[in-house]
Amino acid sequence: MRSDRNDMSRSIGNAIPARLAPLFDGRDLRNNIGLTFLLLTAGEDGWPYVAMLSVGEVMASTDREVRLALWHGSTSTNNLTRTGQATLMLVHGAGSYYLRLAARRGPDLMVQRVPYAFFVTTIEDIQEDLVSYADLTTGISFTLKEPEEVVARWQATVDAIRDAPPP
Prior knowledge:
Helix content: 10-25%
Shape: globular
Order of helices and strands: EHEEEEHEEEEH
CATH class: Mainly Beta
Strand content: 35-45%
Distance between the termini: 50 Å
CATH architecture: Roll
Number of helices: 3
Oligomer: single chain
Largest sheet: 9 strands, antiparallel
CATH topology: Pnp Oxidase, Chain A
């Protein structure tokens, strides 16, 4: 097996690169069904917590600002409110990406009678993880049991995220 000294995570700056931007724009939700973002936060006990987010809960308003709608009262919501820090991870193309985020909580959103905690985050750094000897082919993915209903809710949520005033 060939290994290269460059086979490690590396910083690619603090702006979402063009190749990833369509995954964050909230425009093509139906074609991004199954894409899963992992949100890592730190609990009061010091242990990491992971939340799985869909394209219906994540939207970039600029190449440096990512907005999130999280389940109200969830562990991740409480952790992010407390610490103001998280890592958002996704697999795309042949590699994985880790966005280090500084977060501010905004006013809660009500979407189709469902309350969401709203966060505006600033990207502090993006790590890209690619290796020369292998390509990632998938991350966590899913299928929807009721796609029409869920995509409609996602669209309403992304619209609310897009229109919400920053904190």
